[in-house]
Write a structure and sequence with these properties.
By secondary structure, the chain is an alpha/beta fold. Helix content is about 40%, strand content about 15%. Helix 5 packs parallel to helix 6 and helix 8 crosses helix 9.
Length: about 325
């Protein structure tokens, strides 16, 4: 059970964030409620979603995940006990980051989430057609209005992140307290380097997505196996790389030493990386949660960390 909390601006979050992309997609409302209940019962409090989830599913229009989470919050009466993160900029009807789009999108998200405030509000994808001044001023307006507590960025370049943080500091506006990069043992260059350096320099916390590489880092994808999953194509591609195979072998070794699941070790490595506050991963069923929640119980040795670093280099 997760007992620790990590500061994220004015927020306090568990070291594992529960991804809500599956809610209203591969998990129906009843399954989603069961996962959310089990996650909170296991000590988690940090739930991640987006207004675009899950517009890619035939018959869906976006906002399904927020609606499920909103219904759960209303039925459980636990809004003040959890940290809700959602995102703006990728909903089919509200794309981009113009001030008008941001202000329309936040009201739609608040309605679906059945709440009057969002704890952490991300720009989902940077929109370089809009000046950072317009984006940050609009987000600051939401903070001042009490609709948003903290702001963050996802899928942004090091240059634009630096520019955004500098603007906020100069103008005395709300600043990004978190960054959501694509980052895991088989995708290190998507964060490490310039982007991580900017985050470290400014004290911005990383909340990585694809923490388990679409399921590859659970260990269920092996040469010669077939996995029935909506994400299998994205995960299985790592089997064709030398690095993917090296990472699996090293995870097997470390997991055996700890008597732990491979997924737990992969997340423990990620959680211990510089600047990382909490990796994000989703669970379609309650049975998948224990391995994820155990991340707070694992402390890797220096030798184990070096083994994983070398395998994933």
């Amino acid at each position: 059970m997760i007992a620790t909390r990590t500061p994220l601006g004015s927020l306090s979050v568990s070291p594992l964030s529960l991804g809500g992309n599956v809610f209203g997609w591969t998990a129906d409302e009843a399954e989603s409620f069961a996962v959310l209940d089990a996650y909170v019962a296991g000590g988690g409090n940090f739930i991640d979603t987006a207004d675009a989830y899950s517009a890619w599913v035939p018959g869906n229009s976006g906002g399904e995940s927020e609606t499920v989470i909103g219904n759960w919050l209303a039925s459980r009466g636990n809004r003040s006990d959890v940290v809700i993160a959602t995102k703006v900029g990728a909903h089919p009807d509200l794309k981009g980051l113009s001030a008008g789009t941001i202000k329309s999108a936040v009201d739609a998200s608040l309605a679906r989430l059945r709440t009057d405030y969002i704890d952490l509000y991300y720009t989902h994808y940077d929109d370089e057609s809009v000046e950072v001044a317009e984006i940050l001023t609009a987000l600051d307006d939401l903070v001042r209005a009490g609709k948003v507590r903290e702001i963050a960025a996802s899928n942004i370049s090091a240059k634009r992140l630096e520019e955004s943080l500098t603007f906020s500091a100069r103008e005395g506006l709300a600043r990004y307290v978190a960054l959501q990069p694509h980052y895991n043992l088989v995708s290190r260059d998507t964060y490490e380097g310039d982007l991580a350096a900017v985050a470290a320099r400014h004290g911005v916390a990383a909340v990585p997505y694809y923490g388990l590489a679409r399921g590859f880092l659970t260990g269920k994808y092996r040469p010669g196996t077939v996995v029935e999953s909506a994400r299998s194509e994205g995960a299985a591609k790592y089997l064709s790389t030398d690095r993917g195979l090296r990472v699996l072998e090293s995870l097997d070794t470390v997991a055996a030493a700890h008597g732990a699941e491979i997924a737990t070790i992969a997340l423990a490595w990620l959680a211990a990386r510089p600047t990382v506050a909490a990796p994000i991963t989703s669970a379609r069923t309650v049975a998948q949660l224990p391995a994820l929640l155990a991340v707070g119980d694992i402390e890797l040795t220096e030798a184990e960390t070096t083994l994983l670093n070398d395998a994933s280099a």
